[in-house]
Write a structure and sequence with these properties.
12-stranded mixed β-sheet; mainly beta
Length: 253
């Protein structure tokens, strides 16, 4: 299976701001890929971040449900990618179809999903989390039009109504003068690091957990190998932006 970008654009910038963007999305589903125009349309769809009001695990602060899987942002600033399992393409061993007029049940089943987790850390690899930020918890930035409601099961505690949505989630300055924000589109997630003038972008340290192996691809992308296939994180891009909006590319890898 080819590697497609999945859950992260890593953008770094300084004002003159340095921005680093990293994009990624999961290539774990075995269904045929849509044609190029459809892929471009999907990629352009802005996916909202929704705050957690009891409909998800209490550790989650926000979630964005993309076509590639769900990106959770925890209250401590971790990024958790919940990726769907592959669709099972062959009948399960020993399976029998009772009603031959009905489609085989295996066609609607998936293999177990996979979870990857990214943590921002210090130079020693220790997690920083929101305790390293002036914020107590991630917060929604750039409100979007439209609210959402959830009714999960019969437990009223997991029902949440009329929740506001956001284009971005701001993690605050997790490093001195470095502000990471998150953005999601159709099957992508972006990590956008804005670096203030005279600050050190090399402080950014990201730990990825949950992969069986990691490698760098031919295009500079990070490939995380999982039990459901490879997940690609596109190569980062960086640029410096002036007050007038002019951008100058900056080398980054």
């Amino acid at each position: 299976m080819s590697v497609a970008p999945v859950f992260s654009v890593f953008r770094l910038f300084q004002r003159s701001t340095l921005a680093i963007v990293v994009a990624s999305f999961a290539a774990t589903v075995s269904a045929a890929a849509p044609d190029l125009p459809t892929q471009q349309t999907i990629a352009a769809i802005s996916v909202p971040f929704v705050p957690n009001a009891g409909q998800w695990d209490a550790r989650a602060a926000f979630a964005a449900q993309t076509f590639a899987g769900t990106l959770f942002v925890t209250k401590t600033g971790e990024l958790v990618y919940s990726l769907p399992g592959r669709i099972i393409a062959e009948p399960l061993m020993g399976e029998r179809t009772v009603d031959r007029k009905s489609p085989p049940q295996h066609a609607r089943q998936r293999r177990p999903g996979w979870v990857l987790c990214e943590t921002l850390g210090d130079s020693n690899g220790q997690p920083r989390g929101t305790h390293g930020s002036p914020l107590n918890s991630p917060f929604g930035n750039r409100p979007m039009q439209g609210n959402v409601s959830y009714s999960i099961g019969a437990d009223p505690a997991r029902h949440a109504g009329n929740l506001g949505t956001f284009e971005r989630v701001n993690l605050g300055d997790m490093y001195p003068g470095i502000n990471p924000q998150l953005r999601a589109t159709g099957d992508n997630g972006e990590k956008i690091f804005t670096v203030a003038p005279k600050q050190n972008a090399a402080l950014v340290n990201i730990k990825l957990a949950g992969a069986n192996a990691l490698e760098i691809g031919a295009q500079g992308e990070l490939i995380a190998h999982t039990g459901n296939g490879p997940v690609g994180f596109t190569a980062p891009i960086a640029f410096q932006e002036t007050v007038s909006g002019e951008r100058t590319p900056v080398a980054v890898a």
